[in-house]
Amino acid sequence: MALTIDVNGEQRVVEADGETPLLYVLRNDLKLKGARYGCGAGQCGACTVIVAGKAVQSCDVPVAAVVGKAITTIEGIGRNGQPHPLQQAFIDEQAAQCGYCASGIIMAAKALFDAHPGAGETEIRDALARNLCRCGTHHRILRALRRAQERMAR
Amino acid sequence: MTNAPIPRKLPGSLETNRALDRWLRINGDGTATVFPGKVEIGQGILTALVQIVAEELDIGIERIRLAPADTSYSPDEGMTSGSRSIQEGGMALRYAASEARDLLLQRAARKLGASLEQLTVANGVISARGGESVTYWELASDDLLRQEATAGIAPKLPAHHSVVGSSAMRLDIPAKVCGVSTYVQDMELPGMLHARVARPPSRGARLLTFDESEVRALPGVAAVVRDGDFLGVIAAREEQAIRAQRRLARSATWEETASLPESMDPRYLLQMKSEDEVISEKGDAAGAARASRTFSAEYTRPLIAHASIAPSCAIAQFEAGGYTVWTHSQGIFPLRADLVKVLGVEEKRIVVIHVEGAGCYGHNGADDVALDAALLARAVPGKPVRVQWTREDEFMWEPYGSAMVVKMSAALDAEGNVVNWTHDLWSHGHSTRPGPKDGANLLAAWHLAQPVKAPRPGNPPLPGGGSHRNAIPLYDFPGQRVTNHLVREAPLRTSALRSLGAHANVFAIESFMDELAEAAGADPVEFRLRHLKDARARAVIEAVAAKASWKHRERGDGTRGRGMAFARYKNLGCYVAVVVEVEAANEVRVRRAWAAIDVGQTINPDGVINQTEGGIIQTVSWTLKEQIRFDRERVTTRTWDDYPILTFAEAPEVEVVLVDRPDQPPLGAGEGAQGPTGAAIGNAIHNALGVRLRDMPFTRDRLIAAIARQ
């Protein structure tokens, strides 16, 4: 069936069963591959996007549930060559090894900073409670988030 | 320009891949293409290789293009593993590039009528003294590098390096953090179908019945494939494949056997048949006579998962009797060799192409899923088939890092010096990667109606070793005996996990050294230095002690404490010393870590630091939290809830000091920190609380039990 969803400010029509997890609609129908598949159970955060201002694990949400809500993906905040301050901070701090978790973490952090620009260390770490990193890049990522936060505050 | 004597053996992988144009091409458009046989697994290797080539060719990094590793044209460099990529791939490219530069200079000399000595190069422009110039790109032609490498042109001296030794930014990070399609998981080909495998519920399970017609009738299903105990489904859309796989799994009935150990305690190894080999022995009668006190202790590690954040994935296409496979395997040529055996076609009919995956940390499901994809693609000729393992597939079926038991004993003389040392380790093999002489190391191969059997599992040989990696102490003890008890038969498949046996062996050695230092009334740093002649080893220990402001015989405060540990990876790789600070109330938290690392010549300092930080943080997770769980039939670890790893709330701050040695050969950096980190945590807990934890992981329950026993 045809559904219309609002992705990165555009109305997109997709032919998908309403129960289909948002992640597969983004990746396979809309070719937005930045939300990555990690667990399919909302436990690792690799697929995090922002829905109506909140960080959401897109593998765990049926597409029918996000009709009429603003969805923002990593592709919607900046592009390679014109990165968002959060993405630029990851580059500046070289805050990646394999990078698979990065887009989900950036989206979780964006949702946090949009709501709480002055979030402290504990709030930042807590906001990433549902984001896993396996390479052990945690403290570089935290450094990048603090750097981005400072830049966005200016 | 000097002519070096031609080495009998060519450097690194050049020895086995001698055609210069397998490594490098100079293009007419102002670029050079590098063809590495080593692959990116999140460690930043491609950036380091580009730096090496840019340095030797005297061109900017931005002029270099990278060709993906592909069995149809890439040099065969075996596996990207063992922290050997710089030594093997990097050194091959260094010599190939210096020879290519020389060939270009010779052409330029002829063209400009100048002698070689009169020429200089800047970013690919060759200039003669009179001001005439010509570019690499003008001189390039298809036949330029169509010759055998000689390694006869000496690379630049380290003192002349400007690109090597600098922290060039990783080439791959901007695209990754901007969500660009990067990984094989993201790849899409025209007409591609999605597939899933319904794996057996346990090892050795036999498929009795399943409902093919019900699954076949589900929306989008293109094929249901059964071959012996291998069962899979292909569908048009990904969510349709997932639904069909669930239905297939639900409908299938299996006959299972209770083949797993009664207990998850690694000491099950001690009950099994082992092959025992003394791998180091030296005796000293005078030393033995001085022994005044003896000590012993036993240390264990459970089965640990690689637990890549991305479950394994591959795409395969079967067409005109041949296969193309896109994979994040660490070894495209060994994988092809195993695919040949299982698929029963000639080698030239299989092309294996590398596409990056997430970090793998060793041998995970990458190769297995490639075979799954090829087997399923056979059912839909012409169509690319993408197989994505689920999280549960990966936890249940990836080969684990082996459980290990290490028994130590030692004697001290009256002055508190070690005069005798024994180390006995029990472990399964640490290498069951694809590419063995006999059989195939691919999961589905063993499940087929006509299976290709697994070869006997084993270890890479010493000096690097597998289960016995780092079992021989680097310390200078007058008497020692090290024995490897290899338990070849493994109830659950085990293979290479980052650092192999070094994690448990160094954990045991360095924990025991602290126990002995305590008995000798010595400071842990001083006690190690006292038994260590190797100057580079001493230097990293001293460097980390200085960085962490280590105080002589410092004591914890009942909650917080610090510990240190050291190893030289494989006894021939990088040197790493680590200090950690823990907070241990009801559970153990690592708050801070400091490390010093010596990798010889550093190609990319920030790359080495990033690998070391990551190695430390990942090992904190292994050591505090991780264990694969099973009952008599099945692996019961299925989700991240069953296998918690370190979270952002728990991640320590890490500071790394590089001890750069530009005149020493470069060594790998990816696996040096694992052993020392595990032991440093145990030592810090003892320093904080006075209790000694010898069984990993150091869970809350184990800490509380140890405190209660105190």
Assembly state: heterodimer
Instruction: Tell me the name of the CATH homologous superfamily of the largest domain in chain A.
Output: Beta-grasp domain
The strand count of chain A comes to: 5
Q: Write the CATH homologous superfamily of the largest domain in chain B.
A: Aldehyde oxidase/xanthine dehydrogenase, molybdopterin binding domain
Shape of chain A: globular
- End-to-end separation of chain A in angstroms reads 46 Å
Summarize the biggest pleated sheet of chain B: 7 strands, mixed
The portion of residues assigned to helices of chain A is 25-40%
Which CATH C-level class of the largest domain in chain A is it?
A: Alpha Beta
Number of domains of chain B: 3
Name the poorly predicted regions of chain B: none
> Average pLDDT value of chain A?
97
Largest interface: A-B, 61 and 62 residues
Number of domains of chain A: 2
**Structural class determined from secondary elements of chain B:** alpha+beta
Under the CATH scheme, the architecture of the largest domain in chain A is Roll
The order of strands across the largest sheet of chain A is 2-1-5-3-4
How much strand content do the residues of chain A show?
5-15%
